[in-house]
Every structure is written in structure tokens, then in C-alpha cells.
Design goal:
- The complex is a heterodimer of chains A (about 450) and B (about 300).
- With about 450 residues, chain A is α/β, with parallel strands linked by helices.
- Chain A is built from 14 helices and 18 strands.
- Chain A folds into two domains: about 100 residues, Urease, subunit C, domain 1 (Roll); about 300 residues, TIM Barrel, CATH 3.20.20.
- In chain A, strands 1, 2, 3, 4, 5, 16, 17 and 18 form an eight-stranded mixed sheet that branches. In chain A, strands 6-7-8-9-10-13-14-15 form an eight-stranded parallel sheet. Chain A has a two-stranded parallel sheet with strand order 11-12.
- Chain B has about 300 residues and is of the alpha/beta class.
- Chain B has two domains: about 140 residues, Aspartate/ornithine carbamoyltransferase (Rossmann fold), CATH 3.40.50.1370; about 150 residues, Aspartate/ornithine carbamoyltransferase (Rossmann fold, 3-Layer(aba) Sandwich).
- Classes of the chains: A alpha/beta (about 450), B alpha/beta (about 300).
- The interface between A and B is medium-sized, with 21 and 24 residues.
């Protein structure tokens, strides 16, 4: 069953030459200086640096000292539309994605109302065709009303254009329901993406259960709340020969369970978020509500296991779990605050700063993991190759910037990296052949 | 000191300075006129989002004995019931320029949040299960009066550690003052990894004799619902401090209010070893000392309420 098409507002195909830029693309195995010519939205030529001719009508971008990467794909974004447009809408969410270097994102279904019927999904696709700055796809719910009991019309939803199914934000607690959803995948196709959490273990927890939560007197979410369901669903997927994608893994035991399942031939993919790869529960010690997310930031041991998993491929991709919330919703006591951090605009820079500059991950591996998030959902990995649609992001790895200093493209500002100085700035994003973002200072100097 | 938000912010010297001043204030309580003009013209705002008679009246009395004006703001019957956020309440009340805000909230970190929204000095009177710093200070004060000091002493805190802000502040304060702290309670009410605070954890009272001080916590009856504890009976059988378990040389403390027959037997509450009423008395003088510490060095006429060194 082929994947549906991504949707975006009409955009003008770009014709543009990036000259003398360091291209890094793990798929095409490029790591060298080149000129890259995009003509009418397609990568037309890749030549030795300084050799390509722009031709008439092409904008010329000086890539000296900069890197050109395949643009990123994020399979886990909360666009909050319909129903919670005060947090984010399709326009602001895709604008934030473009600013983060993304060329494709998938919106989660826990909106208000939730995306559990074909008309709701259809309306969302129409809105995206009007408002989305970069190509976007949508997930639909596994269960009606996300109540964890009755399956949605998954086959019809797939026909209308759902990229996959998820009750993200909530687990599918009942193993019998989970099993039926996996069986029904034979008809509906599309991967089932899972938020793994045993709510009976999470209880009223608001952060990772450990020494920090003990000190703060905040109820904890134990890591076994996640890992027990990861293990259960890997077993169920293996038994039903179904495909699952595990969202936002956060702890050692989950990574180990996935590694074991993959070794057993289970069709399981999984993701980790930039914040779980770079922060720990020690960062929650000040009870800053921007550090409250689900799953919670865990220990340094967990973080290291996620990094190891990302490096060795146990963890397939990085996904932001971009979860915007309005300022007044987050300006409350930690235990009262909703869970979630924004992440689209900081994903690359946060992981680059902490992991690549920290010597824990190669730049090529980072680019690969940021680009392959669409694969489980049928979205091909972007690559810098002649004949491919131009999905490119131009970054200045030397540029340092303070998160939030100049505001955000997202409607919300609940970013866990706020105030941190990060390295690596996205200057230009080309998504499916059209320029979707130009960083302000870069655009001004380029115009001279 | 700008605010009192957490015992973790205090050094041993800070604690000793505050408690020395509390000792000096003790004589005022014995006078016919129990009032000094130290904070005349200052306004103390009590902002209580949880029911509290003891702590609130203790703060009120402390402020009044220092001649400050006191405004009590209780969440029930106020704009809070109309849905006003904590931030808006603090901004609104802040327009009246209080010098100090005493806040009690059911949520961890609330006092620190308030400190970010006001120019007043903020005193944490209990934030969720996080901290209750003035309780810890008055407990140390009581023990200093009773034992002279707690360096090297063994203090056992017994009961529902998980839900106790008193336990958390006291662990920090007792350890800062050189005591060794042991926590005892049912495993379902013991936070995982609490040992990281530098205390021992036990699940029975077998070696209670090792303690110099036994600090019993209040056990809320709603925990006895078969979820966290099977029954009141089993809790009392295993963890109640009674005449059989308590040694005559040991000091018994409790933050109040006591459930007689649950965490403490009636006989030990009334025994000379119990210093529970001493703790209540210490509450007023210690809170006077805290208010003095935060407010006495500030200038009345300064609109920005910038903290300045205390005049010599």
C-alpha cells in the first residue's frame, strides 16, 4: 500500500545555485565542497565547487563556510489544529518546522476534536492545502475518541490520507485492543505509532521518579511505566507480524527491549527526542515548567543509552514531539502545568551542540537520524541527488545563538532550551522544491 | 537574604543567625506587652491556598508581635474561586505593595514562582510535598533549646515520608546542623532514591533505641484506604510510637496536628519526652526571626524595595 501524498499550500518552485558549500548527505555518501543547482524545484546539477553556472534567472547563494544538508523529516509534531489554535496552527507550526530545517512533518491526532473520522481528516487536509508552508501529513487515531476501546475506521482513514495511526498522548492500555489494532493493520496498512506508558504506574507523576523527584517532593513517573509497555507491544507486534513505531523512547530498558525485539525480527522502529538526548532530570530541579514533558527527562544513564541507541541504529530517528502550549497554561506551578516542550526550531542545533560538538555523534549520523523519520510512514528519506525534489537546508555550524532571544516562529514559547546558547543556525530551508524559510540576518546580507 | 523558599538555600551560619535571633525574641513572649516596634509600618500578606490554622496564625502572631500590619488572603471565598490564576492574584495583591508575602500552596515550587512576580520578600509556608522551611527552623530551634545542639545526634523521622514537606525540609535542616537522619516508614510511602539526600532508610522500628530524637509525622487517614496502606490497624501496629517503643531518654517531636492512637499513642503525647507544645511556641519566635531577617534591613521609603545592608 503506497503512502499518501504530503500536503502544503501552493508554492513557487525555486531556481537557485548554492555555490561552494560543504554538502553532507549520508544517503548519497557526499561529504565535500560542491556547487548545487536547483532548477524549478528539482536538484538539477551537483558540481565541483566554483564550477557550476547559475544560468539565467537563478538566485546565487554564497555557501562559503556553510553546510548544505538534506532537509529533515519529523514524524512527531503537535500542530494543535483543529481546536487549540491558541497554541499553534498549521501556518505557525509549519513555519516553525521550516525554520528548524524540516521539509516534511507529521501532525499528531490528539486535537480537539481528535482525528478519528474521515471528515475531520478531510477538513484538515483542505486546511493544510491552504495554510501549510512545508509539506505536512496527518496521523489518525487508533481508537475512537482516543478512548482506548473501539477501533476507528482505519481503512477509510487510510484511504482519505492518514499516514499512520496513533493515540499519541495516551497509551493503548488494553492489550486486547492493541492486538486487534495490529490485526486490522492487514486491512488498513500504515504503521501504528505508540505512546508507551502504563498509566497505573505513572499515577499522578509529573517528572522522572528518582533522586531529583524525591528531593523535590514531586510524584514520579517510573521508567518501568514506559518499558513494560514497550516490551508488551514488541511481543504483540511479533506475534501478529505487524509493524509498530515506538514514540519518544526515554529510558535504558526501553532501548534494550527494542534492541531485543529487532534482533528477533520484530518489525519495530522507534524515535528519540532532542530533549531526551540532551537533558536529564537534573534540569528539572528548578521546577521550570518548560522542562515538564511526557515522557519525562530521565537520568544521565538513560540519556547515554538513548545516544548509544541512536548511534548504533536501535533508535531509528530523532523526532521532536513538538508540543506547544500557551504562556498562561505553562505559567503555573510545575505539577499543574501541561506536559510538552516545543522543539522544531531547536532540534538540529540542540543535538548538534550537545552530541556532535560533544564528540558523541558524527555530523553525518545526526543528519541521517534527522532525515529518516518519515521512512516508517512511507515518506522517503530526502537526499542531495540529481533528479530529486529539492529538500535542502543550509546551515551555519559556526553561528551561535541564544534560544528565544529573538522570539519563535511557533505561536508558543514553551521551549526547554530557552535561554541556552546553541551552535548551528538554519539559514535557508527548501522544502519540496520551494523556499520555505530564510533566516532574517542571512536574508538581509544575501540581498546586498 | 531576599526570600525564604527552601532550606537548601541556607547555610548552617544562616540557620544559626536566625535561631539566635529567635532566642532573643523569646523574652518578648514572656512580657506583659508582647510587642516590639521592629517592623512598624510594614505589611505582611498571608496568601494561603490550603487550609491551615496553625501555620497561618503563627505567622500572623509573629508579624503582629513585630508591629507589622497583616492581611490574610484565603483562597476560598476569593477571586481564586472565580478562576484567577496564581500569577494574577500575586500581581493584584502586589499592587498594594506588601513587604512580605507568606504563601502556602498545594503545589511544589509555588513560592519560588511568586518570588518571580513580586518585589516583596517571599516566605514559603509549605509548597506541595516539597518544603516547609519555617517548620524545619522551628524544629531545629526546639531541639537546640532541649538538647543544646544536634551535632552528631541521631534523628529518626517516622511515617509518611512520600507526602511530607516537613520531612524534606527537616532532612536538609537536621543534616545542615550536623545530625544524622534516618527515615522510617511503610515502603509504599517511601520515595524511591530518597537516600540521595544523605539519610538512611528503614522499614521497621526494630532499632529505634539508636535514636536520640524521634520525629513522628502525621499520617493522613485518606491514605488508609487499602491503596497505600492496608489498614490503620496494621500501620499502628508497625509504626506507632508508643510507651513500649519510646525510651525515656528520647525526645519526641510531631509537627501537629496529632492523630492520637495512629502515629502516636495518647500516653507518649502527654509524656514529658514530647516537646510538641514547645514546637508550637518556637513557631512564633522563629517566624518573628525570619520576618525580621527578611524585612528589618530594608528601607521603608524605597519603592523598589531593594534590599540594603542592615544599619549597624
Amino acid at each position: 500500500m503506497t503512502a499518501p501524498n504530503l500536503t502544503r499550500a501552493p508554492a513557487r518552485p525555486a531556481t537557485l545555485l548554492v555555490r561552494g558549500v560543504h554538502v553532507v548527505d549520508p544517503v548519497a555518501r557526499i561529504d565535500a565542497l560542491h556547487d548545487v543547482l536547483v532548477r524549478e524545484g528539482e536538484i538539477a546539477e551537483i558540481g565541483n565547487a566554483g564550477r557550476l553556472d547559475a544560468g539565467s534567472g537563478a538566485e546565487v547563494v554564497d555557501g562559503t563556510g556553510k553546510h548544505l544538508l538534506p532537509a529533515f523529516v519529523d514524524p512527531h509534531v503537535h500542530l494543535r489544529t483543529p481546536g487549540q489554535e491558541h497554541k499553534e496552527d498549521l501556518e505557525t507550526g509549519t513555519r516553525a518546522a521550516a525554520a528548524g530545517g524540516f521539509c516534511a512533518i507529521l501532525g499528531m491526532a490528539n486535537t480537539d476534536p481528535v482525528v478519528d473520522t474521515a471528515p475531520i481528516l478531510g477538513a484538515l487536509l483542505e486546511a493544510a492545502a491552504r495554510d501549510a508552508r512545508i509539506p505536512v501529513g496527518f496521523m489518525a487515531c487508533v481508537t475512537r475518541g482516543m478512548d482506548g476501546r473501539d477501533l476507528t475506521e482505519m481503512a477509510e482513514l487510510a484511504d482519505v490520507g492518514a499516514f499512520g495511526f496513533t493515540d499519541d498522548g495516551r497509551p493503548i492500555a488494553d492489550a486486547g485492543v492493541m492486538r486487534r489494532a495490529l490485526q486490522y493493520q492487514r486491512l488498513a496498512g500504515r504503521v501504528i505509532a505508540l505512546h508507551e506508558e502504563d498509566m497505573s504506574l505513572s499515577g499522578t507523576g509529573a517528572m522522572h521518579e528518582g533522586a531529583v523527584s524525591a528531593r523535590l517532593g514531586v510524584a514520579g513517573v517510573p521508567s518501568v511505566s514506559e518499558s513494560t509497555l514497550v516490551a508488551r507491544d514488541c511481543l504483540l507486534a511479533g506475534y501478529e507480524d505487524a509493524r509498530i513505531h515506538l514514540q519518544h523512547l526515554s529510558c535504558v530498558a526501553s532501548v534494550e527491549a527494542v534492541a531485543a525485539a529487532k534482533a528477533d525480527g520484530v518489525q519495530v522502529t522507534c524515535e528519540a527526542s532532542p530533549h531526551h538526548l540532551t537533558l536529564t532530570d537534573e534540569d528539572v530541579a528548578g521546577l521550570d515548567t518548560r522542562m515538564k514533558m511526557n515522557p519525562p527527562l530521565r537520568t544521565e544513564t538513560d540519556r547515554k543509552a538513548l545516544i548509544d541507541g541512536l548511534r548504533d541504529g536501535t533508535i531509528d530517528c530523532i523526532a521532536t514531539d513538538h508540543a506547544p502550549h500557551a504562556r498562561d497554561e505553562k505559567e503555573v506551578a510545575f505539577e499543574q502545568a501541561p506536559m510538552g516542550t516545543t522543539g522544531l526550531e531547536t532540534s538540529f542545533a540542540a543535538v548538534y551542540t550537545e552530541l556532535v560538538l560533544g564528540g558523541l555523534l558524527g555530523l553525518d549520523v545526526l543528519v541521517d537520524r534527522l532525515c529518516r523519520g518519515g521512512i516508517p510512514f512511507g515518506i522517503p528519506q530526502p537526499t542531495v541527488a540529481v533528479g530529486q525534489p529539492a529538500n535542502l537546508t543550509l546551515v551555519d555550524l559556526g553561528r551561535r545563538w541564544v534560544v528565544g532571544e529573538n522570539g519563535y516562529e511557533s505561536r508558543s514559547e514553551n521551549c526547554c532550551f530557552a535561554g541556552r546558547e546553541l551552535h548551528g543556525r538554519v539559514l535557508l530551508t527548501i522544502a519540496a522544491g520551494a523556499v520555505a524559510y530564510r533566516e532574517r540576518a542571512f536574508a538581509l546580507t544575501a540581498a546586498k | 537574604m531576599r526570600h525564604l523558599l527552601s532550606i537548601a538555600d541556607l547555610t548552617r551560619e544562616d540557620i544559626e543567625r536566625i535561631l539566635d535571633r529567635a532566642t532573643a525574641f523569646e523574652q518578648i513572649a514572656d512580657r506583659e506587652v508582647k510587642k516590639v516596634p521592629a517592623l512598624r509600618g510594614r505589611t505582611v500578606l498571608n496568601l494561603f491556598y490550603e487550609a491551615s490554622t496553625r501555620t497561618r496564625s503563627s505567622f500572623e502572631l509573629a508579624a503582629k508581635r513585630l508591629s507589622a500590619d497583616v492581611v490574610n488572603f484565603a483562597a476560598s471565598g476569593s477571586s481564586v474561586e472565580k478562576g484567577e490564576s496564581l500569577k494574577d492574584t500575586v500581581l493584584t495583591l502586589g499592587a498594594h505593595s506588601p513587604d512580605a508575602i507568606v504563601i502556602r500552596s498545594p503545589h511544589a515550587g509555588a513560592a519560588a514562582l511568586v518570588a518571580g512576580w513580586t518585589s516583596a520578600a517571599v516566605i514559603n509556608a509549605g509548597d506541595g510535598k516539597h518544603e516547609h522551611p519555617t517548620q524545619a527552623l522551628l524544629d531545629v530551634h526546639t531541639l537546640r533549646s532541649k538538647l543544646g545542639g544536634i551535632d552528631g545526634r541521631s534523628i529518626w523521622i517516622v511515617g509518611d515520608i512520600a507526602h511530607s514537606r516537613v520531612a524534606r525540609s527537616n532532612i536538609l535542616a537536621f543534616r545542615a546542623m550536623g545530625a544524622h537522619v534516618t527515615l522510617v516508614g511503610p515502603p509504599t510511602l517511601m520515595p524511591r532514591d530518597i537516600e540521595a539526600l544523605g539519610c538512611d532508610v528503614r522499614y521497621d522500628l526494630d532499632d529505634l533505641r539508636q535514636a536520640d530524637v524521634v520525629y513522628a509525622l502525621r499520617v493522613q487517614r485518606e491514605r488508609m484506604d487499602g491503596k497505600e496502606l492496608p489498614s490503620l490497624r496494621e500501620y499502628a501496629a508497625r509504626y506507632q510510637i508508643n510507651g513500649r517503643r519510646l525510651h525515656p531518654r528520647q525526645v519526641l517531636m510531631h509537627p501537629g496536628p496529632v492523630n492520637r492512637g495512629v502515629e502516636l499513642s495518647g500516653e507518649v503525647v502527654d509524656s514529658p519526652q514530647a516537646v510538641i507544645t514547645m514546637q508550637v511556641r518556637a513557631g512564633v519566635v522563629v517566624r518573628m526571626a525570619v520576618l525580621y531577617e527578611l524585612l528589618a534591613g530594608t528601607r521603608l521609603d524605597s519603592p523598589s524595595r531593594m534590599r540594603e545592608p542592615q544599619p549597624a
